[in-house]
Predict the structure.
Amino acid sequence: MRIPDSILHIDRRIIFLLIGAAVCIPLILQPRFQDSPTPIVQSIFDTVERLPSGSRVFLSFDYGPDTAPELDPMAKALVRHTMTRGHEVSFFTLFPEGLGQIKKITDNLLPVEFPEKAYGRDFVNLGYKAGLGGAINTMVVNFRTLINADAEGTPLDDLPMTADVDEMVDYAIILSLTAGDPGLKEWIQFAGDIAGIPVMGGGTAVVAPELYPYYPQQLVGLMGGLKGASEYESALVDRYPAYRNATMDATMRMGPQVVTHVLIVLLILLGNLAYFFGRSGRPGRNDRTDRADQADRRR
Amino acid sequence: MDVTLQLWIDAALTLMILSFLYRDNPFYKFAEHLFVGVSAAYLMAIGFWDHLVPNLLGKLFPSLMSGVVPGAVGRSPDYYYIIPAVFGLLLLTRLVDRWAWLSRWALAFIVGGSAGFNLPRFLDSDFIIQVQSTMVPLVVLDPAGNLLWGASFSHIVLVLGVICGLVYFFFSVEHKGILGHVSRAGIWVLMVTFGAAFGYTVMARISLLTGRMEALGAWLATMF
């Protein structure tokens, strides 16, 4: 078999092995690819940064464990930033699986990195609400109709942070981490565009292209996939050097991303070169069809 | 559950699923069926406890549900919730051929209600404001009157891209002459969009693979 043919008929399992190696080796060696924030990510950071300390922030975890490797780093970066700035954060989710993602933050990150922050005073978990876009619409029309207690059933009036939250517009900004529907798009449609609350957040890389058209008029900023998360982390480290030694998941995972993308580009180039060189040495499809037609006519 | 046990289950199921990359096998089938079964059961439990109980049973029988629905104590029943309850039951008539036609009423309500609910929002957010966002100046100047090359180029690409894309989907006139050229440029715009989306999808999949590899790494770390 000629070289171009052997490349074109390469066993797909070899490609899987190459991709596996391209992911595992950078994970072991941990090369650092420091990002600098692009304007679309920087605008989220600047908005959170400019809010007066103690502002109410609504953070919706609209994803489950299946997309956690992409969105957890965004959640951690946003929680670190909002908590460092002294904002009051309400966690919420439109995904039933989102409860577990919120729990990871409230049980693992907050007690370790912000032990002085208290539940009900600095942050609260409003839990999961069914109803997709309809749930957002209800919250905008009458917040207390849908949410009158936190995830554990404690009435909002009994929590110092939410006692005087009566409307969605009592929140300064809405942040959503999105894996699909419902997510940022619904927050824009049913909250941002109607109530005028600034909406921003992050989405998986699959969802991100759908969300870019809303920027900058309807969406303050967007973190697209792991790259967006990495950019936010770098903005956080630049502004707060204390985080320089903290584990920055997205920055760490950019190593496998870079190596794998280079490998995929090389494979695409190799595949195309093999196709063109392989084709030049043998008759094309049209040539073969023409000869078959001539043979038919002769018969 | 013990964390080490969790890691072992996590790693075993990950390896079973990844074994499909070599070829289909009983371990993959087991993990696949387990995933489908657990997901279905989880969603059923969520559907009952987070949808039906607070949104229907808690409204119709607040005293009975006071232990599980926050704020239900002392609330009087909302009897108009009988209407959605009946519609919900009508959906189940699909299970009986003779009465299946009754489910169409509930479906008609769902389709009509959803369309009516979503149309104004989509029209506003995804059409009017999007059109508005495309109406941008092609020449962008800073306050001192200097030309901003980057912003101007970006706006020109945006406007031309939208026009070319729209022309490609305009089928009322044959795509010949100038219209044909613009339409061809529209295809290029679409191709670039698809390419960007593909690049993003690769990034998403690699992120997920990285997450799994990290989980396997954590599992291996428990052994050494």
About this structure: Residues 136-224 of chain B form one domain. The CA atoms of residues 91 and 113 of chain B lie 15 Å apart. The mean pLDDT of chain B is 90.
